[in-house]
């Protein structure tokens, strides 16, 4: 094809684009849909009765290639129980200035305490606000949950929690949990 023909083909693409109606998104006021499997902000989950799933094992921090996670575990006591196991994550921080969103921390978590939400709006003008602590990462309490620290459900063990046999109102019978 000649140089003139190439130029006309290029102008043809431009003229076609000029005739299309522009697509305008009203982003801040009306955010668009997010893909259901999008990996956004992290969340520390809770059991149905409000106890935290994080046991402070630090496996997520070890799995993080960007060294963006800091976990400091502590022991549960009879008076102060935050999770059903022996330990809980007393300090939990994710530095979103370092996080690369790879999801390796999610795969490393043995209790499925850490998941990723669809929330993608984490921009800030202050670097210190991009280090999310446990207060920002913990899943909110629902109406039927009790804020920790509190005792485990009556007659339950930590295994009942890990197997999903706990409801918000207490221990479910094993036959109810497997239905």
UniProtKB/TrEMBL annotation:
Its EC number is 7.1.1.-. [4Fe-4S] cluster 1 binds at residues 54, 57, 60, 109. One of its GO terms (cellular component) is plasma membrane. Residues 44-74, 90-119 form the 4Fe-4S ferredoxin-type domain. It comes from the Bacteria. [4Fe-4S] cluster 2 binds at residues 64, 99, 102, 105. This is NADH-quinone oxidoreductase subunit I. It is a peripheral membrane protein. GO terms for biological process: aerobic respiration. Binds 2 [4Fe-4S] clusters per subunit. GO terms for molecular function: 4 iron, 4 sulfur cluster binding; iron ion binding; NADH dehydrogenase (quinone) (non-electrogenic) activity; quinone binding. NDH-1 shuttles electrons from NADH, via FMN and iron-sulfur (Fe-S) centers, to quinones in the respiratory chain. The immediate electron acceptor for the enzyme in this species is believed to be ubiquinone. Couples the redox reaction to proton translocation (for every two electrons transferred, four hydrogen ions are translocated across the cytoplasmic membrane), and thus conserves the redox energy in a proton gradient. It is found in: Cell membrane. It comes from Mycolicibacterium neoaurum VKM Ac-1815D. It is an enzyme of class 7 (translocase). Its cofactor is [4Fe-4S] cluster.
């Amino acid at each position: 094809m000649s140089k003139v023909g190439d130029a006309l083909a290029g102008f043809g693409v431009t003229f076609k684009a000029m005739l299309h109606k522009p697509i305008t998104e009203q982003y801040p006021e009306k955010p668009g849909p997010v893909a259901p499997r999008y990996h956004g902000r992290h969340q520390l989950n809770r059991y149905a009765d409000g106890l935290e799933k994080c046991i402070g094992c630090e496996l997520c921090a070890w799995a993080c290639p960007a060294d963006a996670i800091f976990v400091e575990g502590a022991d549960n006591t009879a008076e102060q129980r935050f999770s059903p196991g022996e330990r809980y994550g007393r300090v939990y921080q994710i530095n979103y200035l370092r996080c690369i969103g790879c999801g390796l921390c999610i795969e490393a978590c043995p209790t499925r305490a850490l998941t990723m939400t669809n929330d993608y709006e984490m921009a800030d003008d202050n670097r210190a606000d991009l280090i999310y602590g446990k207060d920002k990462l913990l899943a909110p309490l629902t109406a039927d949950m009790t804020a920790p620290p509190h005792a485990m459900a009556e007659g339950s063990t930590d295994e009942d929690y890990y197997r999903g046999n706990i409801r918000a109102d207490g221990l479910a019978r094993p036959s109810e949990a497997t239905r």
